Amino acid sequence: MSSSFKDEILWTKDELIIASKGKDLTTKFLNNKKITGISIDSRSIEKNDLFIALRGKNHDGHNFLEKVLEKGASGVVVSCKDSALRYNGLFVKNTHAALLSFAKFSRNRFKGKIIAITGSNGKTTTKDMAKIIFNEFGKTFATPGNNNNLIGLSLSLMKLPYNFHYCILELGMSKKNELKKLSLIANPDLIIISNVSNNHLENFKSEEDIALAKSEIFCGLKKNGQVILNYDNKWFNYLENIAFNYTNNIIPFGVKKSIFSIFKEKGSFLVKSNDFKTYLNHLPHHLALNIISILTVLKCLELDLNKIKEKIKQLSPSDGRGNKFKLKINANKTITLINDAYNSSPHSLETSLKNLLINNSNKYVLIIGDMLELGPNSYSYHKKIVPFVKKLNPKTLLTIGNLSKILSDNLKNDIICKHFKNIELLETNFDKLIHNNDIVFVKGSNSTGLYKFCKNLEKKYKLGE
């Protein structure tokens, strides 16, 4: 799906030509058809999508033009004259460059507020929650999925209806200079950095280098823009000092210093300030902190927080980021599964294990896969997780992958442990290893396959009541 707002006309022919300096060689580009979506993927094309034919390492969008038009695409943007003539396409010199030009044009015509979110952990969930909250104050667009790289940002901005009030953009990075490019295109009014930790260490010399790369998001901040920083994170002062080069409007959030306070109360978290109070019924502590960052943005924009009290109570983690659901394995066995398997890092895994400890249970079954992209110190990072698991003392620990075997090898004398070489073996044995009322927590880097494992469990078993 290319756009969440199927009735919104996103672009006119004239705008596309002006933005890209493209040429309508046949004068039949679009042919009075409307554009309500944007796509670069022929497999997911929908009626009235504009298709941009990108050339990549493995595929060339120009090979799928006939297919996308048959599926109802409004028109195509191409860098091949023959294709433009044959399919009435908009001809541009380079479709990648055109995509960036479209994104910049869309940003410049948008008059609402843009909030950019980055951080080592929690970007997507924070963005998803922000969209739900901001929708209460006006039409809100947010980055679809986790399309947070250069192409993803460009597509997001192309899909942004110009007449919306708010736009929440997730910006990611895995190496230096990426966030600078994204920020200069996004040109945000406000920035949230949720945290800095040791993700993607294989591409950086140190965690300080990661913090420096995260600070690149300030490069595109609008004049007198506002920066919301995590005061509890050890890189707060470092980021604050850099941020002062771009703005004086820096606002902390967190447990130690914030406009808002967090209290554990009645099995949930209470968030309050001088004139606001609400409960977070379905969110763990680290996501409660992310909610505070969003509430801080609302304060900066002078919006009425009491308007979203009830909405906040119902918020829950995004898919694969700690969402919880029941699975009915058979008539006598129903379990709770916590799917935190979209990705993993030392910081996020430690945080998740600490959250489990807060609501301690003797029913925990941990399924932990490798944490990847940690560079030459991968072994030691996995070894450091051992005391966190030992303190939680789950009834069973199941590990997947070469690195996570470190956990089961070090804990097999204290906890029931079983290691699997691959996901297929885990899937085959899963039913025998769990019992009624177990709480199964799953986490690993995306490429371990554990996220797909969780999704397969959802499909395989009837949801319990």
What does this protein structure show overall?
The chain is α/β, with parallel strands linked by helices. It has 3 domains: 13-98, 3-Layer(aba) Sandwich (Udp-n-acetylmuramoylalanyl-d-glutamate--2,6- Diaminopimelate Ligase, Chain: A, domain 1); 110-313, UDP-N-acetylmuramoyl-L-alanine:D-glutamate ligase (3-Layer(aba) Sandwich), CATH 3.40.1190; 323-460, Alpha-Beta Complex (Protein-Tyrosine Phosphatase, Chain A). Helices cover 34% and strands 20% of the residues. It is built from 17 helices and 20 strands. It has helices at residues 13-20, 65-70, 81-87, 95-109, 123-134, 150-159, 178-186, 207-214, 236-243, 285-300, 309-313, 346-358, 378-383, 386-392, 405-411, 423-433, 450-460; strands spanning 23-24, 37-39, 49-52, 75-78, 90-91, 113-118, 140-142, 166-170, 190-193, 226-230, 249-253, 261-265, 268-273, 276-280, 323-330, 333-339, 364-369, 396-400, 416-420, 439-443. A 6-stranded parallel sheet has the order 7-8-6-9-10-11, with helices on both faces. Strands 15-16-20-17-18-19 form a 6-stranded mixed sheet, sandwiched between helices. α5 (123-134) crosses α10 and α12 (346-358) runs parallel beside α14. The longest helix is centred in the middle third of the chain and has 16 residues, at 285-300. The model has no long low-confidence stretch (mean pLDDT 93).
